Amino acid sequence: MDDMDDMDDVKYQLLGNSNITKKNQSKLKKYGKKITIILLSIVILIIVYLYYQTYIPNYEKILIKGESRKDQYGIDLNQYVLNGIYSMGYDGDINKKFEDWSLYTPQCPDLEPAQYPENIRNPKCEETSLQFGNLYVNHGKSLPFSLPLNSITNQLNQWKDWEKNNKDKEPPYYYEMSFKDSVTDEYHPFDYGYQGPDTSEISDQEYYSQVIKSRMDEVPDPRRRRLFFFILFNNEFDLLDLHISEYYDVVDYFVIYEANSTFTGGPKPLSFTRTLLETNRYDKFKDKLIPLPLTIEVNDKDTKLGKTFPRERVARRVLIEKGLRAVEARHGDIFVHGDLDEFPKANILYRMKKCGGWEHLQMGIGGGPKSFKDTNIKSYFVDKNMNIEIDDRGSYKVDYQRAYSLGFMGWFYEYSFHIINNDDGPGITRPNLLIFDARRSLGQLPERINSKPKNNNNNNNKNKNKNKRKEEIEEVKREKEGEHIDVLLDPNFDPYQGYTYSNNTNYQFNGKGYIAENIRLSIASFYENVRNANTTLLWNGGWHLSTFLPNLDIAYNKVMSYSHSDSYRYLPKFIGKNLLKYRINRPSFIYGSFERLKNYIIKLPQSYLTGYQYNFETNYWKEMIKNNGTDSEFKEYVNVLTHDVPYQVWKNPICYNYMLDRDYGINKKLWWDYIPKEKWNNFKFKDLELLIINDLLPKNITGTYKDEYIKTLKGQ
């Protein structure tokens, strides 16, 4: 072979110069192929390595298990971790501790529950009001409707008077009533279903201990109703810290769902559950925290939504069902469901929890469960002869409500409060709030309904009965007159069946029961898509803190867990992170279009010591709206309401500086970057040098506010 190669070399000698030989072209081709194959192999190995590093962490698992942890009322806060659940370790290492995790961030030093002023925490209900979006005018971007509230005691008394004076009259059909007619100053009949005395003299420990042991067909005192948050969690500890501390005082329990895999299918550590069980991070708040770690069991069969969204929606369904069970929900309790980055305004939550007069907007005419103990009231879960109609998705078609839920008309921020998706008006309608209905839970028919019966057009029949449902109840009672059936004495009867769905292994709707994700899906998520003027949205209701995460690593981890993460999923990690950084600095939305987002002016309190000065007095709002909002001071007040930030953010501007200026954590240092890691958990900001404090304070922290903050920080 070598001789043949030499002959080829001779063949290509240049004429006139025997010392110069032209390269063999076939030889170049052969070497070229080898080089191409080698380079291609190297590229493939790099891609495989990057894919492995990005998508295939160590699958070795650790068993996470807790001991019973009952609160003062008897609720076991660890009830969902008693049997244990397997989880991957931090960074794929089962021996690694939380503090050594690559995504670990320290908690804000001295973080305490938000201390709202007395007029917010305990509103004078007879003098206060609640604002709702007026979608009839300028698509809700103008002045709101203002609904007068009342004390629940007064509401109970007014219901008794209304019921006595309207026995033979039709109820208000709230479902068919226009929204503007539902928020007038007059009394809107609502039945809490409560017949008992005022329980205010009973201590909390005694009262709530009795409530959680009570029968589901017994109605607690609505003046002492509870408020629950049901939240989806990934690994966003800084948002979780903010969420819990912002609402700790007004919320009775937080049920926090996390799975040992992401909605995209990749494994993830059960970081919140482990943190709660293994560290002291949440010791100040843990008496209200209920971890709900689960394995996502939805199969991978494609639907029109793909594979990730069905997992997310079933997760919401399971969270709400198990959350209601965990907190021992009873008739009239309120619960909020949303994502961790969806923040309702606390001043609204206080008014809704402690005041009455708004409930008809969600629950309609209301009513409570009837006792199985004293009557022949039946459950359609048990008595199949009741023949309750079921829709094509398996939902029972029973008229319990005016609206599936109420939404919070909020502003859609991206990365920071000074970056907004749309500054022309609200961006989102979430989270969602509703009242727990024991009638639905038990499968009881309501006494009054919210839609006019189809056969009710005949004037001769108008006053025969309260409505069709009342007739159905009486008919069922007559079927077995005198026979006593108490289904709550049957150990196999599930008192929460009305809030369950029988098949959560897929998203094909081949089960039967309550489709809890409709709490969220019943209202268009983006405000601009809301078309029905009767949609009930709490005006200036909150904030959407999209990707409000302290640094690039945590933000990237979050987007890789999204149900809509295709923009990053197939990119090597270093490319994906740089793409995300580019989008943040531009700024543009986290995925999709690269169109620049808008700058938004943040309105901080004038004084750090006094905070925002809120006024929701009924007469004030009535007068301002009557005058079309022309008063200059009122205009400025509305401007503050549409540009304010959560309590904990303005109260802790160093901890949450990245929420006020997005350069922090991306192009500027965060507070823990100045401090050795071994000091993170015990550090006090008063020990920082003034020069560093100034570096850590956003530029919009100025004047009196800044001076008061620094003096407070230094203990002066």
Mean model confidence by pLDDT:
90
- Gyration radius (Cα, Å) is 31 Å
Poorly predicted runs: 1-16, 456-481
Total strand segments? 14
Quickly count the helices. Answer: 22
The fraction of residues assigned to DSSP E strands is 5-15%
Biggest pleated sheet: 10 strands, mixed
Task: Tell me the number of structural domains.
Answer: 2
Shape: globular
Helix content: 25-40%
Distance between the first and last residues' Cα: 92 Å
Secondary-structure-derived class: alpha/beta
Fill in the keyword field for this structure.
2 domains; beta-1,4-mannosylglycoprotein 4-beta-N-acetylglucosaminyltransferase activity; membrane; two-stranded antiparallel ribbon; disordered N terminus; 716 residues; 30% helix; alpha/beta
Mind explaining what this structure looks like?
The chain crosses the membrane at residues 35-52. Residues 452-462 have a biased composition (Low complexity). Helices cover 30% and strands 10% of the residues. The protein has 716 residues and is of the alpha/beta class. Strands 5, 6, 7, 8, 9, 10, 11, 12, 13 and 14 form a ten-stranded mixed β-sheet that branches. It has a two-stranded antiparallel sheet with strand order 1-2. Strands 3-4 form a two-stranded antiparallel sheet. Mean pLDDT is 90; it is low at 1-16 and 456-481.
